[in-house]
């Protein structure tokens, strides 16, 4: 269903990421879990920023009635986030536009 899987997931040591279910899933999927040190959010600043946007702009805005409904809503948000919404940290480009420039070998002036 999803193209590939990450080699490692970097996250905070929140209860949703240190559960036995998450540990069992990651072991079975061959995905390493790496937890940042407590009180060191800069070790995961990009993910922290993304998670804040995801929670504010998607998760807090919807009630999910099923896993299928959640997948559809999240996929729509992901498409908007990556292809239509400009990002200040990417000099006003969308992530897709930024990736296109990088893949074309162009230099970016981003924060």
Structure summary:
The chain has a domain at 1-35. Helix content is 44%, strand content 7%. It has helices at 20-29, 45-57, 67-83, 95-103; strands at residues 8-11, 32-35.
Protein architecture, described:
With 111 residues, this protein is mostly helical. The chain has a domain at 1-35. It is 44% helix and 7% strand. It is built from 4 helices and 2 strands; from the N terminus they run E-H-E-H-H-H. It has a two-stranded parallel ribbon with strand order 1-2. Strand 1 (8-11), helix 1 (20-29) and strand 2 form a beta-alpha-beta unit. The mean pLDDT is 84.
Topology:
Elements: E1 8-11, H1 20-29, E2 32-35, H2 45-57, H3 67-83, H4 95-103
Parallel strand pairs: 1-2
What is the chain-wise order of helices and strands? EHEHHH
N-to-C span: 34 Å
- Helix run count: 4
Q: Characterize the main sheet.
A: 2 strands, parallel
Q: Averaged pLDDT, please? A: 84
**C-alpha Rg (nearest Å):** 16 Å
Shape: globular
Indicate the multimeric state: single chain
- The portion of residues forming beta strands comes to 5-15%
Residues in helices, as a percent range: 40-55%
**Order of neighbouring strands in the sheet with most strands:** 1-2
Instruction: Report the strand count.
Output: 2
Poorly predicted runs of 5 or more residues:
none
* Structural class computed from helices and strand pairing: mainly alpha
